[in-house]
Please model this.
Amino acid sequence: MPLHHRMIFRLFWRRVAAWLALSVIFWFSSKPCVAETREDFFEVLQIGTVSFTNATVTTKARDYIFLLHAGGMANVKVSELSPELKATLGYAVAVEPKPNAAAEKAKTLAKETLQKIETPQVRELERQIRSAFGPETPAAMNLSFLAARLGPAILWAIAGIMVVLHLFFSYCSFLICRKCGSEASILVWLPVLQIFPLLKAARMSSWWFLACIVPLVNVIAQIVWCVKITEARGKNILVAIGLMLPITNVFAFLYLAFSGVSVRTIMEGAV
Model:
């Protein structure tokens, strides 16, 4: 994999790790503390204009407190408490938590890591890559970047499938050449070069190879080959039409390879 793609890959995961660390740290550092669950007893508890005697605060939640008093029970919002009473009940710690030394150290380390990542050399490399690929082309479309994302196991599996498909296509071409009465040379197993034995099987000159590599002209060459190879196999013209059309061309090609030899082909070979 090219050097700049490896740098992009490492840069991406380093950023993900740094931002993930920052997110976890900020979540824990900003998470509000819950007040202590110990009970507080007051002979007289003044909240606003209401006084409670022999009051015991049994529950101290984030938004309210629950207390038992001589007259029964009451539920009071924390926002209605005075600052002094909040401090007595422990809500000052919840509102203004003490800074966590470990969390602050981790924050600083994460920020320093991000600053090291955003070096002028890395920014220049990103600029060059954007100019090379273009603003509208995502990096995932690049084959090298895609290969890095897939992993070696998947790439070997894809390569194996492609080799099997090529060998199967070559074997079908070998059968077509043999059933047309043409000698199938070693070229039938080689990519690109296998077009020469297939042209020979269709009773066409090897010079048609040049027509097959010229845009637009190659369409005409393909049509001519479909008709000629069908005639050489002694099959119906409908097979030639099937060879010209998408999807059906696969089945037509397999039919030419595995169907029996016609009497017409046998007679022509005898002659």
